[in-house]
Design brief:
disordered N terminus; 8-stranded mixed sheet
Length: 430
């Protein structure tokens, strides 16, 4: 009898598990109507979008199209005021690598040591982070999980913001290595107690150390070595072009130094992360095919003499000069602030950026910079079906209201604990 009862319970829970697993399969979805923001600077109105097997089968104008609706599991009819966007992508973030900033045990993004290219953010990623739920709620569906600290922080990976664990969530493992370029200045205090900057006398010495490490890594790459060196082995992709070298720096002189290193070591792919002064040296960036992941615009200028609105205008300045640029939300409380990525893009529209280009700065441009632009980031035939529908303008915090979202054709759970608490206490005290 006990055996039969145990078997019965196992079957029940086994059935529930299989039911949950079945929900992770891509649906056949047909979206009709609405405004599609393609993610490459273009838009289409009154569209028909077919999602099958996790990919966009087609996107075309609805008028004049003959589509068999019976071929789909779900048909979504939108009015002309609804908006369709590619899933927003958050680059250079510790989302999923930290949970509570004040609790050291939940911070898993900064390892011991100065040169750690072999440290992988991938295996530290927590797909069950409650912060991830709040980012999805505003349309952020993918990210680049990025380590911090040291001279070479480690290796990032591109993650989907769904999945049971990091193995399910990974989109592109080990996409690039992150190097923190030595700053030419130190000090400065903080905004409430500003202090003059001082020249960093150790900067040249630190750069020489970086060059020495890069020379050793390049000599190691592609050769049969008797002893395995995990740090040097983790750099091989930087030299053969399978990985991007992300250089974190802001000032013009430092950007030029980093690009010179790219040329000297024949590094195939380099991206400047931060890039506050990038608009001052656009030619060297374009000539060397170096893109920019621009630091969070919602900050004060790094120089007291700069216009207070300069951080808001820099993305448009880079766009106007032809530099490929996308936006990130690194900085204080950056994991929690990833939910505000679309609204930062909205700010750049108010300061000179074309609206569709601002959408591209958190979708198509980001995908292109991260090396996944051929498969995702835009609403185009054959691309991954990672997208969402918003009731209003997704770059405006007053109207952004994500109704339904898909990651590779799988419906995304848009609930989160903050919204649940809001509804709970709203019902109690109304």
């Amino acid at each position: 009898m006990n055996y039969i009862k145990q078997l019965y319970i196992t079957l029940i829970f086994g059935g529930l598990f299989l039911g949950i697993q079945a929900q992770d399969q891509p649906e056949k979805v047909l979206i009709l109507g609405g405004i599609a923001h393609i993610g490459n600077g273009d838009k289409m109105e009154d569209v028909a979008i077919s999602l099958k097997n996790g990919y966009i089968e087609f996107i075309k104008y609805q008028m004049g199209s003959r589509i068999d609706r019976s071929d789909y599991d779900t048909v979504i009819q939108l009015d002309k005021e609804k908006h369709i966007y590619p899933g927003f992508i958050a680059p250079n973030t510790i989302l999923g690598l930290t949970e509570i900033d004040a609790v050291r045990a939940t911070r898993d993004y900064n390892d011991v040591g100065e040169y750690n290219p072999n440290v992988r953010a991938l295996i530290a990623f927590n797909s069950e982070s409650k912060i991830i739920q709040t980012a999805r709620f505003n349309g952020v569906l993918m990210e680049q999980a990025t380590p911090r600290g040291g001279v070479i922080s480690g290796t990032s990976s591109i993650m989907k913001l769904n999945g049971w664990n990091w193995e399910d969530a990974v989109h592109t493992p080990d996409d690039g290595v992150h190097l923190n370029w030595p700053s030419q200045f130190v000090g400065g205090g903080w905004w409430a107690d500003p202090k003059p900057l001082k020249e960093n006398k150790q900067a040249d010495e630190r750069i020489q150390q970086i060059y020495a490490f890069m020379e050793e890594a390049k000599a190691y790459a592609g050769n049969e070595n008797e002893e395995i060196n995990l740090k040097l082995e983790a750099m091989e992709g930087v030299f053969d072009g399978t990985q991007t070298l992300f250089v974190h720096t802001d000032r013009a002189k430092e950007i030029i130094q980093a690009v010179n290193m790219k040329r000297q070591f024949n590094i195939k792919k380099m991206v400047i992360v931060g890039g506050y002064d990038a608009y001052l040296v656009p030619e060297i960036l374009k000539d060397n095919k170096v893109a920019v992941i621009y630091r969070r615009p919602h900050e004060l200028p790094i120089r007291p003499e700069d216009p207070v609105d300069l951080p808001y205008r820099i993305p448009a300045l880079l766009q106007d000069t032809g530099v490929l640029v996308c936006l990130d939300m690194s900085g204080d409380m950056e994991a929690m602030n990833q939910r505000n990525l679309p609204f930062v893009a909205g700010t750049t529209v108010a300061y000179g950026m074309d609206y569709e280009q601002a959408v591209a700065a958190i979708t198509g441009n980001t995908a292109q910079i991260l090396g996944i632009g051929d498969i995702t980031g835009t609403l185009e035939n054959g691309k991954e079906a990672t997208l969402f529908i918003s009731d209003g303008d997704a770059l405006d915090m007053r109207t952004n209201n994500v109704l339904v979202a898909y990651i590779q054709g799988v419906t995304v759970d848009l609930s989160n604990f903050q919204r649940d608490l809001y509804l709970k206490y709203k019902a109690k005290y109304k």
